[in-house]
Amino acid sequence: MDLMQAANWQLILNPVSGKFKHKRKAVLEALNQMRIPFEEHTTSQAGDAFHLVQNAIAKGNTKILACGGDGTVHEVVNGILDQTVRPAADVSLAYIPSGSANDWARTLGISEDPLQAVKAIKTGNYFRHDIGMVYGADSAAPFYFANVLGVGFDAQVAQRTNARRKPGQRIHYRWQILRNLSGFQTPDIRLSVDGQEVYQGPAFSLAVGIGKYNGNGMTPCPDAVPDDGYFDVTVFTNPSKWDVLTKSGRLYSGDFFDLEFVRFFRGQSIQIESNQKVLVEADGESRGQLPIRIEVLHRHIKCLTQLKNKDL
What is the pTM of this model? Predict the structure, then answer.
């Protein structure tokens, strides 16, 4: 193993993320200005970030710097956790947001300005971050998420948006809600939290949050804390189309606790089932369908950010 190579940050660049074409030069200039040694790796298709991370760790590199959107973060986190060469606690993760939404960055307080984001690396402050481990969803092996997992309408929007999206295209999430609303049939689900069934009935959309945000600043889980060892679960039971059209804006302010079609739960183990086909997404990426079981991995990865664990 080349010790000089192992000391470098492995920069994983997603050139088709929403804002990347305007940022690549600024990102490289920021890294050089802050005198941060790095090796550049560029993705060319879905799944590349996952494999680039795994290859880097296999070669002894434990410093991963992701530059892309929430989908890139999702792949990188899964690349770190779905390998057995090094414990996840040995791997350092830093992030420069360049996607359309950058919702994970909102929770961690990571700036979209490349220089400010890179400065977080220089702080040397590690934030220990919870992770969701998901079983089921048509997969024999578990997968992981760092921000929000969505079920139902949210997952349908993610699936259709990702299928239609062109490289580098910005996503207008409110428009995506409108175009997907027609024809959507609300399924029935069964939700168990920590081994106890807490809800059975219609679920237009359901969010399991480690972080607060998805959909470019929506806050389906406004009280979520990314290092408290708990999932926040929000169920939007059966709103009318008029409710969705007129009240979805309250998701951006987080001021929807009084809505009669919303239920809130918290726990460390979540199970969601349905007799119908119900789609699942995680961090904005389509991940199959129900049933799923989700377990929390408390403070399982370490991220370089100015956000601090309060008790460390």
Answer: 0.92
